[in-house]
Design a protein that fits this description.
Layout: E1 2-6, E2 9-11, E3 17-24, E4 32-38, E5 45-50, E6 57-59, E7 67-72, E8 77-82, E9 91-99, E10 102-105, E11 109-113
Length: 115
């Protein structure tokens, strides 16, 4: 089982990034997919969640209207489009897959918002 994130980097405030998480080793279409983030010295927080059929989303209030989560079942990939990035979005971003008692994490990708 693997979740491999990519797409992080350094961006100026107001900029955009798209994170990708490629899944393998499990039935991607049956899993709820989420993005979390963790800033230094802080807890890991839920950013966005998408249910298995893509019909329901959840966003943290701090990112609502700026971030969009989506999934491509053909590519076994979940995305996080991040627009109008702010300093406070700086964190390590993690992909999570959950189905009942089964759950997996990716290794993370760093997003740094700095001028």
């Amino acid at each position: 089982v693997q979740l491999v994130e990519s797409g992080g980097g350094l961006v100026q405030p107001g900029g955009s990034l798209r994170l990708s998480c490629v899944a393998s080793g499990f039935t991607f279409s049956r899993y709820v997919m989420s993005w979390y983030r963790q800033a230094p010295g802080k807890e890991r927080d839920l950013v966005a969640r998408l249910n298995s059929d893509g019909s329901t989303t959840y966003y943290a209030s701090s990112v609502k209207g700026r971030f969009t989560i989506s999934r491509d079942k053909a590519e076994n990939t979940v995305y996080l489009q991040m627009n109008n990035l702010k300093f406070e979005d700086t964190a390590e971003y993690y992909c999570q897959a959950v189905n009942g008692g089964s759950g997996y994490w990716g290794q993370g990708t760093q997003v740094t918002v700095s001028s």
